[in-house]
């Protein structure tokens, strides 16, 4: 047992409290619990503080890492953009070189270079010059603005060039540049041929009268395949008086029409409205109509000038032959 004495300094009173060992132990355990709780709370608070600091440090480290990655990506993107800009400049230079080759820059008064397939034809030159003027004007406007090179601007420049080349390709496809007979035989040898009657004034072999021959007579063996001299649309498959069996093909882009006459027969399935390509079979050399022997009468009609023109000026793949 223990006695606890409490003395008051004001009232001069004394109080005594008897405390047994159980009370002391209870008080000790209560104090120990309170102390332990306080220490635990302090440690918990300190732990939470360090955790927040660690979390903030981790967030800062992650943010720094992300910033570094963004900066690396930015540098890489800038490098790639520089490469793209260089490629675009290179593409522009190539388009300029192509323009120069085709003669469509419109700078310094340069004219259009005429394709080998269009030599000797006024109508093709006129169409080319018209296209050149159009493209040249666009080219000059593009360069005068001096805008920064962008994908859109480069695309527009290339589209202009593409449109010109596509239009020019249509002209080339419809240009009657080949001899309209397939002379190749199965054994690899060529059929013999010659020009038995040229375009222009002549003595007709039957009437013996002087008349203007509006085409080119190509003398060769009967049955030799007749082919389209250029791409176009079949506008006639019929028997035409003294011309016999004929095929007519319109070449709309160049305003030309080709005529194939005295045919022995037509290619199977050939019909009006059919689109044909250069070299496509359309018939066979024959002797129908008013004719002295198997041959192909080949004519080219200029629809713009409304007159027949000399086919010799168009044929580029064979050297003209006047006689056997």
Describe this structure in words.
This protein is of the alpha+beta class and 324 residues long. It has three domains: 2-79; 103-173; 193-313, Glucose Permease (Domain IIA). The protein is 40% helix and 24% strand. It contains three helices and 14 strands. The chain has helices spanning 21-102, 122-145, 151-173, and strands at 2-7, 14-19, 193-197, 200-203, 210-213, 216-220, 225-227, 232-239, 245-251, 256-266, 275-276, 281-285, 295-302, 307-309. Strands 3, 6, 7, 8, 9, 10, 11, 12, 13 and 14 form a ten-stranded antiparallel beta sheet that branches. Strands 1-2 form a two-stranded antiparallel ribbon. It has a two-stranded antiparallel sheet with strand order 4-5. Strand 8 (232-239) and strand 9 form a beta hairpin. The longest helix is centred in the N-terminal third of the chain and has 82 residues, at 21-102. Mean pLDDT is 82; it is low at 106-145.
List low-pLDDT spans.
Answer: 106-145
Q: How many DSSP-defined strands? A: 14
Beta content comes to 15-25%
Return the domain count: 3
- CATH domain class of the largest domain: Mainly Beta
């Amino acid at each position: 047992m223990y006695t606890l004495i409490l003395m008051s300094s004001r009232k001069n009173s004394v109080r005594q409290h008897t405390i047994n060992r159980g009370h002391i132990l209870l008080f000790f355990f209560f104090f120990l619990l309170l102390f332990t709780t306080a220490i635990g709370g302090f440690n918990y608070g300190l732990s939470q503080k360090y955790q927040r600091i660690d979390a903030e440090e981790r967030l800062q480290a992650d943010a720094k890492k992300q910033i570094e990655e963004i900066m690396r990506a930015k540098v890489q993107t800038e490098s790639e953009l520089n490469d793209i800009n260089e490629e675009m400049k290179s593409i522009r230079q190539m388009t300029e070189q192509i323009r120069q080759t085709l003669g469509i820059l419109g700078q310094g008064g340069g004219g259009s270079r005429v394709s080998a397939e269009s030599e000797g034809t006024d109508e093709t030159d006129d169409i080319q010059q018209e296209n050149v003027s159009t493209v040249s004007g666009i080219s000059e406007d593009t360069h005068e603005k001096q805008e920064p090179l962008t994908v859109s601007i480069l695309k527009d420049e290339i589209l202009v060039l593409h449109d010109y080349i596509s239009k020019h390709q249509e002209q080339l496809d419809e240009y009657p540049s080949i001899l309209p007979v397939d002379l190749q035989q199965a054994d690899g040898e060529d059929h013999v041929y010659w020009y038995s009657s040229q375009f222009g004034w002549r003595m007709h072999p039957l009437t013996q009268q002087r008349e203007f021959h509006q085409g080119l007579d190509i003398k060769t063996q009967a049955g030799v395949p007749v082919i389209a001299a250029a791409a176009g649309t079949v506008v006639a498959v019929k028997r035409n008086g003294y011309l016999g069996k004929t095929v007519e093909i319109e070449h709309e882009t160049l305003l030309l029409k080709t005529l194939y006459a005295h045919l022995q027969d037509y290619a199977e399935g050939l019909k009006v409205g059919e689109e044909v390509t250069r070299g496509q079979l359309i018939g066979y050399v024959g002797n129908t109509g008013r004719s002295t022997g198997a041959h192909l009468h080949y004519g080219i009609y200029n629809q713009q000038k409304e007159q027949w023109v000399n086919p010799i000026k168009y044929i580029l793949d064979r050297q003209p032959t006047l006689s056997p």
